[in-house]
Structures are given as structure tokens and as C-alpha cells.
Amino acid sequence: MEKAHEIIFAGFGGQGILSMGQIISYAAMIENKELSWMPSYGPEMRGGTANCIVIVSPNRISSPIISRFDSAIVLNQPSMDKFEKEVKTRGLLLYEASSIINPPLRSDIEILSIAANEEAQKLGKKQVANMILVGAFLYKRPIVEIENIIKALKKVLPERHHHLIPINEQALAIGQRIAKESEKELIHN
Known about the structure:
Elements: E1 5-12, H1 17-30, E2 34-41, E3 49-57, E4 69-74, H2 77-83, E5 87-96, E6 110-114, H3 116-123, H4 129-140, H5 146-156, H6 165-188
Parallel strand pairs: 1-4, 4-5, 5-6
Antiparallel strand pairs: 1-3, 2-3
């Protein structure tokens, strides 16, 4: 039986942290799943801390307040320091490679480093780094379908930004490819 999946997205404001959670939440709604999206951010517009907790479940969610996570998507070192230890055993910790000075050392979780900022620069749109991470995450933990992420983007992005949906689709595909390639590397090592 499918169970709830509890995720923390964490980084600095302006990195698309809340958007990642919101897009996955909308995709879960499209799939008629139960969900909780709980954002938290500092008073700064950009550069302050931001995180959001998302729970996606086939069943009713009893409480949106959690402190241990099945997955963490981390985009800065302060968030790594705060949330690495909160990932459950056998959970997933996915992080943006260039933003982390001290990589995680745990051996009881799956760890995936993604050069999302670098890949987004290659696309010529640094703002899609978060979608590269979402693509990699959904490859590893397919809690919602990628096609529903695309539908969710149409709801989350303001109409004036809908011309960016194709580049976001590319970013999702890049994240999926990188996560798939990381599995091949593990098999060969």
C-alpha cells in the first residue's frame, strides 16, 4: 500500500524553495491525493531562509507538523546543517552541489548531489535550477507524475510567465537524466 511521503525543501529565499513545494502539491491535487503544503520563511524578501514542508499521501493527513522527513531537498549550507539529521533512515537527501561546503556524511540514507545551478546556466536560465532538482527528486521518489508537474506549472506560474513552461520542462528532463545517470555510476563503482 502506498504511504505518505514527507518532504522538506530548504534554502535561501529567491531560490524557488516555496515554488518547488507548491508545484508538487498542485500535481498531487491533480492526482486526487491528500496533501499539505506548509511554507516558512524569514522576513527578508530575498536571501533570508526559506523552507516548506510538503506531505503527499493517498490517505488523510493527520498533522502537517512533522520534524523527521522521508526526503530533503537542500539548496544551501545552513539548511544542510539544520535538516541533514532530520532525514529518516533510508530516506533521500538531494542537494545542490555548488551550494554545499560540507557535504552530508550519513551512510544510512541515499544522498544525491546535483549540479543544478551549473545545468541551469547551460540552459541560459538560472531560475530553473529548482526544476532540475524536482526532476531528479521525482526520478528517485516518483510520488507524482512528471506530466502533472507540467500541468501544475500552468497553475502556479502567473500567465505572463507561461512562455517559460518549455524551459521548465527541459529542466525537469535534465534532472531526471542526471538522477538516472547517478544510478549507473553506483552500479559501475
